[in-house]
Amino acid sequence: MFRRLLTGILSGVLAAFLPACDSVNLDKLKPGVTTMAQTREIMGPPTMEWQEVDGSVTWEYPRTPNGVVNYMIDFGPDKVLRAVRQVLTEANFARVREGMTREQVRRLLGQPASEQYYPLKKEYVWDWKTRTESAYDYFFDVYFDEQGRVTRTGTHFKALSGG
């Protein structure tokens, strides 16, 4: 009981302070100036790294499952920051298409808040929290077949627990 209470309190504290830390840390990142090494010092290690053929690199910094942002940080072949992108946007949700692979979706939206498998339907569902409003959490969902291809997208909401 105590452990569950403590976990809930710590999760709430982290969720409250993480956005504040992000705004402080993100303000330190300057496109065209900040290097990969400096970014790692400021932001910590990325959860995922993608190397491009031209030598450019993208690092992933998710803020899921409790946050409503995922950052992709792009570096040029010279290892200097090009851009910081918040990828959980309506425009990116609209880019998810039937037939895309899990890898393509992950590169577009970043790490999902949760992943489930429904054996009777033979489908996987990834979701990302998009907002919290009026006592509800809202999510964007991507459904994959067993071959890892998008079959459809959707949304759902969940009531916040009351205590």
Describe the protein.
With 163 residues, the protein is α+β, with helices and mostly antiparallel strands. It has helices at 2-28, 36-43, 90-95, 102-109; strands spanning 48-51, 57-62, 70-75, 81-86, 114-118, 123-133, 136-144, 150-159. A hairpin with a 5-residue loop joins strand 7 (136-144) and strand 8 (150-159). The chain starts with a helix and ends with a strand.
Summarize, please.
It contains four helices and eight strands. By secondary structure, it is an alpha+beta fold. The strands form two sheets. A four-stranded antiparallel sheet has the order 1-2-3-4, covered by helices on one side.
So what's the CATH class of the largest domain? Alpha Beta
Overall outline: globular
CATH architecture of the largest domain: 2-Layer Sandwich
Order of helices and strands: HHEEEEHHEEEE
